[in-house]
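Below is a concrete protein record.
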Amino acid sequence: ISAKDAPAVLRKCLDEITAQRQAGRLHGWAPALLCAKLALGLREALPGDDADGREAARKAAEAAARAATEADASQPSGWWMLGLAVLKGPEPKAAVDIYRHCLEMRPDHPETRYALALAYLMTGQTAEGLKAMHDLQPKSGDELVDGPAHEGGHQ
């Protein structure tokens, strides 16, 4: 897909999956999470000067991520995506609590630890952000991402 065509393609996919969910043909947290991912992708694909379109896509992502967490609150992926949508919105400090909640479910998840550090930094909580970044550093012999000690990968 070309960069020029990406917004239309993403919007078409998002509209179709949203319609399927609203019609009751797609259930559960996974389709809602997919809608959130597509909406955030659309937000990033839109031109920077399309503030209204980008905010509409972010709101759609936030709503879909909330639907994913309501469908199954035990799935950290929904919370992670909700944190990302909220972080890009008018109340980014709320993302900190969302990422903390996500870490309660998966304390060993490096992407969430990174997202929390970023949320701290983006909301002016520099000391907390730098500490969280420092905590991401591998300890002697540990790896930042899954390695031999985590042979099964993410669960």
